[in-house]
């Protein structure tokens, strides 16, 4: 009987020891998990800090790129402030279609539909502000220069207004005279302004584009 109790006591002691070991392992495992999470958090913070603070060579590269960009911006701004030779130095021609050739001749394109009603040669009231701007630009940028006012039409023959115009040449001449007259009224020298009629001899890609008046300023 005494031997039986001894054996039972031994097994009980071993069981208790096993439970104690398991509890210890469980605690150590929890501690390791906690330490691992802390280390992961520190690692993430370090990576974030490194991404925000590049090494000196990267900083130098960024500074060079910024300096190059700033220099390019300054160059473009300088070009914008200094128009090419022969072009106006301000916004005098703003909103007006202007072309220039190598000789310096300036051609202002004025759509006929903007200046006149269909089949007529009397200026629309809404067209006069545009022509006034043309006059101001010429007086400021090209004073004393010869000005030609060229009238053009599309290639459709005169039909509805046959009682007013013999042909397209006649209509283009009347329109060129109307524009010339207004330019002189607004201050250009009548001796320097001359109307010219071309009728339908120089059509463009469309009828509306063909119907036009061109103010040509000789810069020579």
What does this structure look like?
There is one protein chain. This protein has 220 residues and is α+β, with helices and mostly antiparallel strands. It has two domains: 2-81; 97-217, 2-Layer Sandwich (60s Ribosomal Protein L30, Chain: A). It is built from six helices and five strands. Strands 1-2-5-3-4 form a five-stranded mixed sheet. Strand 3, helix 5 and strand 4 (193-199) form a beta-alpha-beta unit.
Provide key terms for this protein:
2 domains, 13% strand, elongated, five-stranded mixed sheet, disordered N terminus, 6 helices, 220 residues, alpha+beta, 60s Ribosomal Protein L30, Chain: A
CATH topology of the largest domain: 60s Ribosomal Protein L30, Chain: A
Give the C-alpha Rg.
44 Å
Number of helices: 6
Low-confidence stretches: 2-8, 10-19, 77-90
How does the overall form come out from the CA principal axes? elongated
Order of helices and strands: HHEEHHEHEHE
Structural class: alpha+beta
The order of strands across the largest sheet is: 1-2-5-3-4
Oligomer: single chain
> How helix-rich are the residues, as a percent range?
40-55%
CATH architecture name of the largest domain = 2-Layer Sandwich
Main sheet makeup? 5 strands, mixed
Q: Calculate the terminal CA-CA distance, rounded to whole Å.
A: 137 Å
- Fraction in beta strands: 5-15%
């Amino acid at each position: 009987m005494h031997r039986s109790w001894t054996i039972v006591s031994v097994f009980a002691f071993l069981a208790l020891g096993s439970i104690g070991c398991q509890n210890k392992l469980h605690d150590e495992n929890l501690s390791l998990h906690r330490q691992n999470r802390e280390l992961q958090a520190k690692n993430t913070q370090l990576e974030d800090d490194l991404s925000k603070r590049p090494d000196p060579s990267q900083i130098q590269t960024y500074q060079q790129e910024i300096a190059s960009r700033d220099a390019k911006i300054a160059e473009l701004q300088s070009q914008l402030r200094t128009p090419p030779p022969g072009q106006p130095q301000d916004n005098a021609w703003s909103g007006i279609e202007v072309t220039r050739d190598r000789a310096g001749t300036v051609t202002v394109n004025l759509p006929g539909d903007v200046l006149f009603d269909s089949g007529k040669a009397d200026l629309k009231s809404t067209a006069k502000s545009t022509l006034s701007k043309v006059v101001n630009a010429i007086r400021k940028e090209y004073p004393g220069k010869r000005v030609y006012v060229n009238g053009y039409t599309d290639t459709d023959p005169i039909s509805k207004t046959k009682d007013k115009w013999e042909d397209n040449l006649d209509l283009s001449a009347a329109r060129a005279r109307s524009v010339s007259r207004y330019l002189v009224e607004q201050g250009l020298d009548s001796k320097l302004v001359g109307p010219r009629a071309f009728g339908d001899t120089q059509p463009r890609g469309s009828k509306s584009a063909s119907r036009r008046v061109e103010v040509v300023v000789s810069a020579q």
